[in-house]
Amino acid sequence: MDKKKIIISPVTRIEGHAKISIDLDEYGYVSDAHFHVDEFRGFEKFCEGRLYTEMPVITPRICGICPVSHTITSVKACEMIQGIQPTYTGNLLRRLMLLGQNVSSHALSFFHLSAPDMLLGFDADPAKRNIIGLAQSNPDIARRGIRLRQFGQEISERITGEKIHSKGIVPGGMAVPLTKENKKYLLGWIHEATETTLMALDILKIFIQTNQDMVNSFATSPTMYLGTVGPNGEHELYDGKLRFVDEEGTILQDQLSPKKYLDFIAERSVGFSYLKYPYYKPLGIEKGIYRVGPLARLNVATKMKTTKAQHEFDIFKRLGKGKPVHGTFYFHFARLIETLASIEEISHVLHDDEVTSHHLKHNGYWNYDEGIGCAEAPRGTLFHHYKTDKGGKLTNVNLLIATGQNNPSMNRSVLDVARQYVKGPDIKEGMLNRVESAIRCYDPCLSCSTHAMGKMPMKIEVKDANGKIVKQLVRE
Amino acid sequence: MNKKKIATVWLGGCSGCHMSLLDIDERILDVAALADIVKSPVVDGKEMPEVDVAIVEGAITSDEHYEEILHIRKQAKILIALGDCAIHNNVTGLRNFFKLQEVFDTSYKESPSNDADGVMPDDPLLLKLNEKVIPLSEVVDVDFFINGCPPDADYIFYVIFEYLNERIPQPGGHKKIQYG
Ligand code: SF4
Fold first, then answer.
1. How many structural domains comprise chain A?
2. What is the pLDDT of residues A282-292, one digit of tens each?
3. How confident is the model over B87-122, as pLDDT tens digits?
């Protein structure tokens, strides 16, 4: 029998543009698998020659799902160039914006993209396995999910007047205040948002309980983890230092300044994807696979900052028995714990009296020719690195994106799942969906990672070694 | 009235336009009551069937996008360009000021975090990027342009809702048309 290749093109229900190919050996067993990211937009080049102060407005256009992360990371890099710090209130409002985006992005990932699999079944009719199908079978759950996402978006709307690509975040702080009325309005959402997240946690826990075998055997290859932590190792999204842990949970690096990222992270361009392969530099590309994002942040953190989230965090930590939780499915659990933590923190920040103050912004001017910014985007640690000439024009731009850093392990997870579910050229719809859902666990934002975007019909081709199509399957 | 069919498509954009579409929040259920969403990044789409309304985000950046927009035009009664990238390239088109090869070199060769052992992406499975990014209307006729980066959610809802009720939306028919 010839060697064969299965191509899943493009992957559906993820935020981006990708193909998966699965290679079969002569006996029909999976020999290799690749995750091909299929778009490229070239921000690093076309920003050259522009003023560094334009970056907080251009870079959110890398990704409409996490624009706030890009803006905040960008203004931090600008502040390093100017040598200034944001005001106290500026920091509070930015933190609110980032937490709000974390809620809306995680709600989208859970309710719109993943819950349909959990509630309707992986093998359910593909035409129904989506948020609208969910609205027909479980209208209350779908409505609450849509509203949870709305709450996150409202935070941006109520501070800046815009939900996406908002303009008020600037070097030195914020350009717009939060009014007392809007503060009250946002506080009015806290109860509902908390309840919805607790409901989502229940849905997920029941799914995990009834699908133990699948969950615990689902793409479990161990990796290292990278995430941001506070001074005492607490979970942090907006502003902190970096921590790397190894597969066993041993802390390799702690309280690292993000400004030193080049000492610890390198990446390699590969032929089969527009997405590069980042790795932990001291260990090299083979051994240095690390992951970022919700699962990584909980694996590196020592504790949470808020009570309800801490309660769930204890449950999470028990899963790993003192070691990191490697099962890719637990990304979903980690994401919901972070959602809960973000809602609790939003409430704390809103209760700070200074949040409505008008001490919004410090003024700064070009002082240094290099700036590095870092923040935790919903999908993981994000770095912006700018170099400028003496007039403040950009000479070099490097963007290290969350999903990019998960690329090597996404590939490995696809291989893990393919080995488990695809046997021979006999492909069934449910199996393919499982291969894709390995990817979906990472909630990859391919618009971000390749500074790109995507589309989604569904056609699978099995090709022999000469590239001749021997079998074709169109999703019904 | 027969149930209509809608498709929403992502080409070269940032997904912000789709996120703004989702910002119609619970009104998505009103849309679903009038129409089936047969293809969209948030559902498992198959090949694009004939639809009443196709909403397209993003500019045309590659051979695949080019084929796709022709196909969409053939399948759709109404084609809506959603957002500034689809209308006039916007940020996606900023790479037009450079040669494509230079843009590749910056990311895959010269980036400060790259190691020395990389190769250029060249797998035949990958789509081929076009030298220049072009907006939808350079390739096909577009029936309605919804401007903004991203367009306002209320405006998007207004336009879709008018078409689904077999009315023709008016530019400016919704009060909050604005950039930003
Ligand atoms: S118009 Fe703006 S929001 Fe829409 S895809 Fe383009 S950059 Fe993103």
1. 2
2. 999 989 999 99
3. 999 999 999 999 999 988 988 888 898 888 888 888
Q: Which range scores top for mean pLDDT: A31-35, A123-127, B68-72, B134-138?
A: B134-138
Kindly report the pTM of this predicted structure: 0.91
d(CA A295, CA A333) in angstroms, rounded, equals 8
Is A259 part of any domain?
yes
Please tell me whether residues A455 and A331 are part of one structural domain. no
CA distance A50 to chain B (A): 11
Is the C-beta atom of B152 inside 6 A of ligand 1?
no
**Could you tell me if B36 and B6 are in contact, meaning their C-beta atoms sit under 8 angstroms apart?**
yes
In sequence order, which residues have a C-beta less than 8 Å from that of residue A422 and are 6 or more positions away?
A6, A22, A24, A30, A431, A432, A435
Q: Are A415 and A33 in contact (CB under 8 A)?
A: yes
- Any idea what the CATH number is for the domain that residue B17 is in? 3.40.50.700
> Alpha-carbon distance A188 to B64, whole Å?
46
* A112 & A212 share domain: yes
Are residue A322 and residue A189 in the same domain, yes or no? yes
- With residue B97 as reference, give the H or E element that holds it: none
State the closest ligand 1 atom to the C-alpha of B57, by its place in the atom list counted from 1.
5
Domain of residue B137 covers: 4-102+130-175
Q: What is the ipTM of this complex?
A: 0.92
Nearest CB among B115, B117, B126 relative to A36 is that of B126
